[in-house]
Amino acid sequence: MTTGRSTTARSHRPARSPKIRVLIALVAAAAVLGVILAITLVVVPMLRPAGPRPLFQLPVACGETWQLGTYPGHDDYDVDLFPTEGEAWGRPVLASYGGTVTEAGINGSLGGRTPDNPEGPRGRGGGYWVKIDHGGKWETQYLHMLEPPLVKVGQEVAQGDQIGLLGSTGNSGAPHLHYEQRRGWEKVETHFDGAPSGITTDEREHTVRLTSGNCPRAVS
Ligand SMILES: [Zn+2]
């Protein structure tokens, strides 16, 4: 008579039970899946080429002429914008293209430069700033704004939306807008309305004057 329960062979099997082996196999499978997921979500997008350059416009009001410049010690491609007419303090800073806000806050420290105290203590870094992701690995950033940005992280903005007010927070000598265009992790020569600005090096002081084409567009 047999019960089906006891065989002599079973008592010689290794101590590791089938349940433990299944568990180990599951953990290993999860680890492999995790690596595949990380490659898919992180590495592949990093290697993907950038999309076409968005049709950026000057980050200031339609029709206004501004001076764009750089100087030794600024970084190549960085642009400082000053209005050619009127008061600089508080001028609207506009999104130069539509996208999603990825930074909106304080970079470095604000310092104490305000319209009432323009020679106040200088801050560090970008002061009140905004960064916008335009998709296709393209980004723009806007530094030294007067007040907390008018947009929040995660917010969608359209070209021409006001994101802040021009100021002199952070490491800024006078009220101006420091502006950059980036492709992937690199700064690139700024383009406005499809044309390169010509600001490509900080080896010498260099300025150009451009008129903003950041104008309301008919909705199609
Ligand atoms: Zn600058």
Give a verbal description of the structure.
The protein is an alpha+beta fold. The chain is built from one helix and 13 strands. Strands 1, 2, 4, 5, 6, 7, 9, 10 and 13 form a nine-stranded antiparallel β-sheet that branches. The chain has a two-stranded antiparallel sheet with strand order 3-8. β5 and β6 form a beta hairpin. The longest helix has 30 residues, at 18-47. It is elongated and about 90 Å long. The N and C termini lie far apart (87 Å). The model has no long low-confidence stretch (mean pLDDT 92). The structure holds zinc ion (ZN). Zinc ion is lined by residues 74, 78, 80, 178.
Please give the structural blueprint.
Layout: H1 18-47, E1 65-70, E2 79-83, E3 92-94, E4 99-111, E5 122-135, E6 138-145, E7 156-157, E8 162-165, E9 177-183, E10 186-188, E11 191-192, E12 195-196, E13 206-211
Antiparallel strand pairs: 1-2, 1-13, 2-9, 3-8, 4-5, 4-7, 5-6, 6-9, 9-10, 11-12
The structure holds zinc ion.
